[in-house]
Write a structure and sequence with these properties.
The protein is α/β, with parallel strands linked by helices. It has one domain: 3-Layer(aba) Sandwich (Uracil-DNA Glycosylase, subunit E). The protein has eight helices and six strands. A six-stranded mixed sheet has the order 1-3-2-4-6-5. α1 packs antiparallel against α5 and α5 crosses α6. The longest helix has 17 residues.
C-alpha cells in the first residue's frame, strides 16, 4: 500500500514530456467557459482504486476538461459517466457518478490507470510520450499483485499493457493478441485480458459502443472473478 502511494505521489510530479507539460498547464490556465470558477488540477494523474484489486482497467489519457480538471481518472466527463455507471452496476464502485476528487467515490476490487498520465493535444499521445509513461504502468503491474483480469479501454491502452508485460518479461501468448471489442485472451500466467472499445464520446454517440456492449465486458469480468 505504501509503495503504491509513493508511486502515485511520484507520478503527480512528473515533467518528462515537455509538450504534455505545456499543454496540460495551458488548458488548466485557459479553462473551458463552463468551468471558469473551477481550479483545474493541471498535473499528471495517478492511478486510483483498491490496492488489492483483482480487476485492472487501463484508459488512454486524462480528458482536457475531465481528469485534467478534476485530478482523478475518468472524473467529470462523459467517458467517466459511462464507466462508473457500469462499474456501479456490477459491484465495482460504491456510486454511479464521479464529479470531483472529494465526491466519496471508492472502488471495490478494481483499480483504474492509463497509458498516458497527462492530457495530450487532440487526445493523441505520441509513441515517445507513451514510452515515457510506461514505467509507471510497469510499476503498477508489479505492485497490484492480486490482478486476475485486465480491461484495456481502446487499442492504445491494449498495446500499452502488452508492451509493459514484455518489458517486465511476463509471459505472453506465442501469437500476439489482437484487439477487438469483447475479445478475451487468457494469458500464460492466469490473467484474463478482456479488450473493450473506449467509452469516448466519439464511440458512444456514433453507436460504435452501446451500453449493452459495454455492460457485456463487465458482466464477463464479474463472471470470471466470481468463479
Amino acid at each position: 500500500m505504501e509503495a503504491l502511494l509513493r508511486l502515485q505521489r511520484h507520478i503527480v510530479c512528473c515533467t518528462h514530456c515537455p509538450r504534455l507539460v505545456e499543454y496540460r498547464t495551458r488548458v488548466a490556465h485557459e479553462k473551458r467557459r463552463q468551468y471558469q470558477e473551477c481550479e483545474y488540477w493541471g498535473k499528471p494523474l495517478p492511478g486510483f482504486g483498491d490496492p488489492q484489486a483483482r480487476l485492472l482497467i487501463i484508459g488512454l489519457a486524462p480528458a482536457a476538461h475531465g481528469g485534467n480538471r478534476t485530478g482523478r481518472m475518468f472524473t467529470g466527463d462523459q467517458s467517466g459517466d459511462w464507466l462508473y455507471r457500469t462499474l456501479y452496476r456490477f459491484g465495482f464502485a460504491n456510486q454511479f457518478t464521479a464529479q470531483h476528487r472529494a465526491d466519496g467515490l471508492t472502488l471495490h476490487d478494481a483499480y483504474i490507470t492509463a497509458a498516458a498520465r497527462c492530457v495530450p493535444p487532440a487526445n493523441k499521445p505520441t509513441g515517445a510520450e507513451l514510452a515515457a509513461c510506461r514505467p509507471y504502468l510497469r510499476r503498477e503491474l508489479q505492485l497490484l499483485r492480486q490482478v486476475r483480469v485486465v480491461v484495456p479501454l481502446g487499442k492504445i491502452a491494449f498495446e500499452a499493457y502488452l508492451a509493459a508485460r514484455r518489458e517486465l518479461a511476463l509471459s505472453l501468448p506465442d501469437k500476439h493478441p489482437q484487439f477487438g471489442h469483447a475479445v478475451s485472451t487468457p494469458l500464460p500466467d492466469g490473467v484474463l485480458l478482456v479488450a473493450s472499445y473506449h467509452p469516448s464520446r466519439q464511440n458512444t454517440q456514433t453507436g460504435r459502443l452501446t451500453q449493452v456492449m459495454f455492460d457485456s465486458i463487465f458482466a464477463r469480468v464479474r463472471e470470471e472473478l466470481d468463479r
